User: What shape does this take?
Amino acid sequence: MSVLKAEGVNFDFEVPVLVIGAGACGLVAALASHDAGETVMVLERDERPSGSTSLSAGLIPAACTQLQKAQGIDDSPELFAADLVAKTHDRTPHDQALVIAKNSGPMIDWLMEHHQICFELVTDFLYPGHSRLRMHGPQSRTGADLEQALLAAVERAGIDLIAGASVEDLFVDKTGCVKGVRFRRRDGALEVLGCKALVLACSGFAGDANMVRRYIPEIADAECCGHLSNTGDAVKWGLDLGAALADMGAYQGHGSVAHPHSLPLTWAVITKGGILVNAEGQRFSNEMRGYSEHGAEVAAQPGHVAWDIYNSQGHEAAMQFHDYRSIHALGAVKIASSLDELAHLIGLPLSTLQAEFDAIAQLARSGEPDRFGRRFNEVPPLQAPYYAVKVNGALFHTQGGLMVDQDARVLRENGEPLPNLLAGGGAARGVSGDSSYGYLSGNGLLTATTYGRLAGMMAARIASGR
Ligand SMILES: Cc1cc2nc3c(=O)[nH]c(=O)nc-3n(C[C@H](O)[C@H](O)[C@H](O)COP(=O)(O)OP(=O)(O)OC[C@H]3O[C@@H](n4cnc5c(N)ncnc54)[C@H](O)[C@@H]3O)c2cc1C
Assistant: This one.
């Protein structure tokens, strides 16, 4: 991954807008450039585009959409931005959060109206930290369906996408203007391609173990459930170009990945009253703090595993998720009609488990917070039948990256934008603060799609000289 001098390079041909990466960010950017009247091409490393987008639940938070209005939900960009910033404990700048919040609703409406992407508003579950119902996703709640819908829209628009094309080098002139790229085909052949504007939509660095250890040591020993083709190339090129980086310690972890199946168990089971216990049967955290910060927390437990224990309400809420149905079908969900039976089934000491349940029952009556700060009087008490899934902690994707402005232009360390370089999604600094706890549900796809659209529109303006 290098930045090379553009002088003297003869490009095989040139496209006005070039996009690296065919996840949600790259595909949305391509559609936006196309709609702005520019010819655009997408280069994707994998033979079959999928990205971390396909691994996600496909849910995008957005404010003031037509779907929200139809349900009478009174959301606003200001409220959404306040939720984003609050989750980070003020570690994400408010103006950046507001740019994302303001552009999120129009982005969803545009994808629905102009590109026939079908979204539903999730109305049966308020995600923690979101003060309004604002999660939009495919009916299946799978990122794979979102990715396929975006790929179909790109194909309908007649946009060229070359799969199996791994971009290795950027060619840049003395002013910092990107003149083109060199990419490697699956058979090893190298090609050079010129461009007038370049969108970095090649996501973060979860797939580069050395970068994870350097920037986020706390999660370096946990399982990586992210997309392994995301090897931090945007950051590597950005460093060579003198671009500013920010929040490199930010990431989405997950403290509830079914083990050894490597499928995420929705946190809905926790918000419906569920708990986490370690291999000794002890609770170890306030589970309501969120799933992301529990990635490192669970990875630090004995044997690096824990058990999610929940009741039938959690089970029913989870059944709407494809991943949960798979976990269930694989036999990973253990069901017991008493605590005694549960302890036997999952091999935990009954006495410790019983003590935890007794303490919870007492806290539910008193309304007092537990030793970690969680209150149990706001949800129905855990009752048989009990459900349990063995889980580990994992890294899903990184949220730190290139600093961008309100048009998704990559910024130099002095705050000036580079002439024709845009970034979004996992390649850019997100709105999740600088650690794991700032990740509000949906932040990944939020910045992928919202910055993706902004980047595509701006790339088209740059390419056309407007
Ligand atoms: C298990 C899991 C669950 C998640 N759940 C959610 C969720 O429910 N909601 C949410 O909002 N977010 C979720 N996320 C995060 C979300 O998926 C990502 O934030 C989002 O998809 C990022 O989109 P992207 O387009 O930036 O990156 P990606 O979708 O990862 O796409 C990047 C693409 O760039 C390609 N690429 C990389 N380098 C190169 C190169 N040099 N040349 C060519 N191509 C390259 C990659 O192959 C990849 O296809 C989840 C992530 C994971 C892993």
Observations:
- The domain at 251-395 is CATH 3.90.700.10 (Flavocytochrome C3; Chain A, domain 1).
- The chain has a mean pLDDT of 96.
- DSSP finds 15 helices and 21 strands in the chain.
